[in-house]
């Protein structure tokens, strides 16, 4: 299976419209790849909080339309990263969209763990409540977004739902880059799964982005890693490695369930 992670540069000197057109063209260029992955909030920038409200889109807004079309023109599965979504009830969500090669919406995921503590996403957006997996022809994808990477129980939930490959769009800041790579590898090793983690490049709202998108195999080995700038990171991997690893080293079978809750 071939995946291409589009590590998009999100800078303020480019308008959202022009970035959307540029990214659609980049997706179209990936014809022949099985799965294309975009980062978190690449239209506005994950730290450009003031844009969340102004650029928020209805469930089938302009980014949805452009990405559905780009997926079908390229004939690829497209994890289109996330967009600020405005629910009909007015609540904003950080919502990831996954399209099939015919441009149908295959899944959407509202980020569960909102980042920012007492500001930004944590106060401006609602929290998702549902774990989401998507069945591709060769693997079952579990979806998570950026800060979710710090919460291993979410990934265990995705494994229980059948996930073999995690796709994690992000807008991870440069100042915590070491955590990004470490956590991507940890989630891969502990769940014996592939991790495809796609971040942004550039600087928005004064926050330099880490770049360094990374693909990790179920043994925790880094198969490919991007540099700091805009880049297309293409990698070939064999999803059957997941079953092989889980078979040969069956640590997941030794789980003791319920330890994430106090026992009485
Ligand atoms: O957890 C982190 O260090 C970064 C998280 C983040 O930037 C986000 O979720 O948007």
Automatic annotation (TrEMBL):
The keyword Endoplasmic reticulum does not apply. PROSITE patterns: CN_HYDROLASE, UPF0012. The keyword Magnesium does not apply. Keywords: Hydrolase. Gene3D superfamilies: Carbon-nitrogen hydrolase. One of its GO terms (molecular function) is hydrolase activity. It comes from the Bacteria. Residues 1-239 form the CN hydrolase domain. Belongs to the carbon-nitrogen hydrolase superfamily. NIT1/NIT2 family. This is Carbon-nitrogen family hydrolase.
């Amino acid at each position: 299976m071939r995946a291409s992670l589009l590590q998009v540069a999100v800078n303020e000197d480019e308008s959202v419209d022009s970035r959307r057109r540029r990214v659609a063209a980049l997706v179209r260029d990936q014809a022949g790849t099985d799965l294309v992955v975009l980062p978190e909030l690449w239209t506005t920038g994950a730290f450009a909080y003031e844009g969340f409200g102004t650029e928020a889109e209805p469930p089938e807004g302009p980014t949805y339309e452009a990405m559905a079309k780009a997926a079908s023109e390229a004939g690829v599965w497209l994890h289109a990263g996330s967009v600020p979504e405005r629910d009909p009830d007015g609540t904003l969500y950080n919502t990831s969209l996954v399209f099939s090669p015919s441009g149908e919406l295959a899944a959407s995921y509202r980020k569960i763990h909102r980042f920012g503590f007492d500001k930004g996403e944590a106060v401006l957006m609602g929290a998702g409540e549902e774990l989401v997996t998507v069945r591709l022809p060769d693997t079952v994808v579990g979806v998570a977004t950026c800060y979710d990477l710090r919460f291993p129980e979410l990934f265990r939930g995705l494994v229980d739902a059948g996930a073999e490959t995690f796709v994690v769009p992000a807008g991870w800041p440069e100042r915590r880059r070491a955590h990004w790579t470490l956590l991507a590898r940890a989630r891969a090793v502990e769940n014996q799964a592939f991790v495809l983690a796609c971040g942004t490049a550039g600087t928005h709202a004064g926050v330099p982005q880490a770049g360094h998108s990374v693909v990790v195999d179920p043994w925790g080995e880094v198969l490919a890693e991007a540099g700091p700038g805009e880049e297309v990171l293409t990698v070939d991997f064999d999803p059957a490695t997941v079953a092989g690893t889980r078979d040969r080293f069956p640590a997941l079978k030794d789980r003791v369930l319920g330890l994430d809750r106090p026992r009485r």
